[in-house]
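queue> pop job 88
queue> type: inverse folding (structure -> sequence)
queue> payload:
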């Protein structure tokens, strides 16, 4: 979980080290531009909403007991635990994210940038809103008809297919030369 209280950020129960510089939550709409031949203007079509992005900026510095790189390792361990191959969704709790309706996020990225300042390490954490997709599986019903189309055939057509519909004039127990003879006599 991520908690933001009194400039403290907690991720999965671990307080992020350093000073909380800023939290940014960005939401945007998904809009496609259409190409219309002969028109200079491009009509826009709204197609939905993008997942929200949450950026947290920290400033990590040395303490009497830990270097800034040891403190960065704490954040790195939250981002990717040993043996973890896929990021897991985590709940997020803060006034800023709650204002946008963001409840769960994926830890998308961590960036640090060494500057020529005394003992400070700026760190940026990037989170993307996690919206679970539910896929419902349905069981295919068994069909009582023997046709390849299954239950889409009407009962009248199904009974027609199973009834004795006669034989072709070319195959009425005739020899192959007689059958070809009959076929040649048929009108076009």
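queue> result:
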């Amino acid at each position: 979980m991520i908690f933001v209280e009194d400039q403290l950020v907690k991720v999965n129960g671990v307080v992020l080290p350093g000073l909380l510089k800023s939290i940014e939550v960005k939401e945007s709409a998904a809009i496609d531009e259409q190409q219309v031949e002969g028109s200079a203007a491009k009509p826009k079509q709204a197609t939905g909403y993008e997942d929200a992005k949450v950026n947290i900026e920290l400033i990590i510095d040395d303490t009497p007991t830990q270097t800034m790189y040891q403190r960065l390792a704490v954040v790195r361990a939250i981002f990717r635990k040993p043996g973890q191959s896929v990021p897991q969704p985590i709940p997020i709790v803060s006034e800023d994210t709650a204002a946008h309706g963001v409840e769960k996020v994926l830890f998308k990225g961590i960036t640090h940038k060494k500057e020529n300042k005394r003992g400070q390490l700026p760190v940026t954490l990037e989170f993307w809103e996690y919206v679970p997709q539910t896929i419902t599986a349905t069981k295919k019903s068994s069909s009582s008809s023997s046709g390849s189309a299954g239950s889409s055939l009407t009962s009248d057509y199904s009974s027609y297919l199973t009834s004795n519909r006669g034989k072709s004039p070319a195959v009425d127990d005739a020899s192959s030369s007689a059958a070809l003879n009959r076929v040649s006599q048929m009108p076009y």
